[in-house]
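[09:14] KT: can someone run the structure on this one? pasting the chain below
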Amino acid sequence: MLRLWAWIILGCFITGFYADIRHSVYNIGSEPGFFRIIFYNVENLFDTFNDPKKDDDAFTPSGDRRWTTYRLNNKLNNLYRALAAAGGWHFPAIIGLCEVENRYVLEMLVNNTGLNSSGYEIIHRNSADSRGIDVAVLYRPDDFILLDTKFIPVIFPFDSLTGTRDIVYLKGVAGENDTLHVFVNHWPSRWGGQAATEPYRIYAASLLRSFADSLFNINTGTKIIIMGDFNDEPNDKSLKDYLGAGFGYDNPETGELYNISLENKKNNHGSLKFQGEWFLFDQFMVSGSLLKGGDGLQTCSQSTSVFSAGFLLVPDNAWFGYKPFRTYEGFRHSGGFSDHLPVVLDLWW
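[09:31] RB: done, structure tokens below
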């Protein structure tokens, strides 16, 4: 029996369910609550139909990827497995997703997999991305009472021909009647080189900061969560200088943003691997009011992690170690999950 409990405790720690320990450490109260958010770049979640307005031809049955209904269903069930495991013992309250083609594939994910008992609602709008890949959100109304949502277009004044994904904004009530503001992102990629594409991410960062400041101007204690695939790391210019997501979270101030994902980077926990090197593009940032403790919904700098369960990884025979188990290796269908790993954020009250 003692050995059994040891494994249970270890399992709780691995999956992130150490909220009760945090509650006792931070004196949050005798009846704490728990709130988990996941962000996941699901890598090319396309339907099997050709959209003549989008560059999705490769992901059709006759396209280069030979993308069939069987392969789509396999991917959907894999994504369910990943999300359920990352959620631990409960379905996450909010799931941010990117690289989804449309609402149809989101409905398949929610209704045709083990998520069908979760009660998730879908937030999605087709964006200006040339490939048709969008940002979307799944949320559980029992955990997050949605008050408002907006789709913020990212239109580059220096390049009107390049379209990209919207930033999805949610406002809702969570915890014990706390108002929570959530921004979900997928910033322009580094395709074409980091330096050449950096202005696009800097613009997205500046735009997002302007929306965050508009909330802070109303109330410096506003509780904000920013998540996404930023195609930059915590110390890169777009996040550090233009979004202003700092690292002084041991002494947080209201009205400021903090990148608590830096802790994952310090521990060499990346969310994707390229040419043998792990990168942390998938991150969470929070407002200082969520880090200050006290009453209401809160978190800390140790509460975010990269979910790297063994079934999400395969041996990296080219560069050693392990890498994410993705759906394709080149043009060969390997039947995996994604080229990114999910990232998790825990909050409590």
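[09:33] KT: thanks! The chain is about 25% helix and 30% strand.
[09:34] RB: yep, looked fine to me
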